[in-house]
Amino acid sequence: MSFQRPAETAVIEGKESLVELTLELERLGLNRGTSGNCSIRSSKGFFVTPSGISTGDLTADSIVEMDLESNVLSAGNPSSEWRFHKDILKTYSWANVVIHTHSDYATAFSCFREDMPAFHYMIAVAGGDSIKCSPYALFGSQDLSDNVLEALRGRRACLMSNHGMIAVGETPSKALALSIELETLCKQYLLARQVREPILLSKTEMREVLQKFKSYGVRGN
User: Fold this and answer.
1) What does the alpha-carbon distance between residue 162 and residue 136 come to, in Å, rounded to a whole number?
2) Got the DSSP string for 96-120?
3) What is the pLDDT of residues 62-87, one digit of tens each?
4) Cβ(35)–Cβ(185) under 8 Å?
5) Most buried pick, 16, 136, 169, 208, via CB within 10 A?
6) pLDDT at res. 215
C-alpha cells in the first residue's frame, strides 16, 4: 500500500475540485466547449484550467499550476486568461476561487459596455450598488487584467465588455452561486429593457440592502 504525502493529496484534491467546477459550469450552460476558465488557490499559487482543452476532455492531470509571480509550475499550458486569475488571487487574500464564463445573458449584456444599475436588490450580492463592466481589452492581455481589477474594486463580480463575466468567492460553491446569480440578473435586466428602462432603486434603498446583506443567511435574519 503506497503512502501519499498530505501535500500531494492537497494537489490532487485541488485539481479534482477544479475539474468538477468546470463540469458543473458546462452542465448549467454557463460555459461550453473551451470557453471560459476557472482557478483555485493552491499552496504554491493557484491551479488554473488549461488552454484549448474542451471540458469533455479535461482531467486532473491537465490542470496547470502557477505561482503568483507568473511562473508555470507544472506541465501543460495555462488558460490564455491566467493573468487576471493571478492578479485577482494576488490582490484579494480572501479570494480562493475565480470563475470566468461566456454565459449567454452576461455576454449579451456585456456588449452594451454598460454597468448594470440597481434594477433589483440582488445586485448587492456582488458587493455594491451596481455591477461594473470593465472596458474592452484583448483577451489574455495585461490591459484586460488591469481593467478587471478596477471593475472588481469593492465587489465580488463584474462584467467584461464584449466578453463575459467574472465571479470570485472563498469557495467553489460560493463562486458558482454568484456566477448563477449574475447570469440570472443579466437575463432579468435584458427582459425588463425589452419593455422599457426599469425603475431603479435609489442609493438610500441600496445602502439599506447592502447593510441587510451583511447578515444575509445568518439565523434570525
Assistant:
1) 7
2) -EEEEE--HHHHHHHTT---B-SSS
3) 999 999 999 999 989 999 999 999 99
4) no
5) 169
6) 75
Q: What SS3 class is residue 139?
A: coil
For residue 54, CA distances in Å to 22, 27, 50, 79, 187 come to 10, 13, 9, 12, 26
- Whole-angstrom Cα distance, residue 83 to residue 154? 20
* DSSP secondary structure letter of residue 131: B
Radius of gyration of the chain (CA): 18
pTM as predicted: 0.92
**100 touches 166 (CB < 8 A):** yes
Closest C-alpha to 166, from 157, 175, 174: 157
Q: Which of 13, 81, 150, 208 is catalytic?
A: 81
- Reduce the DSSP state of residue 187 to 3 states and report it: helix
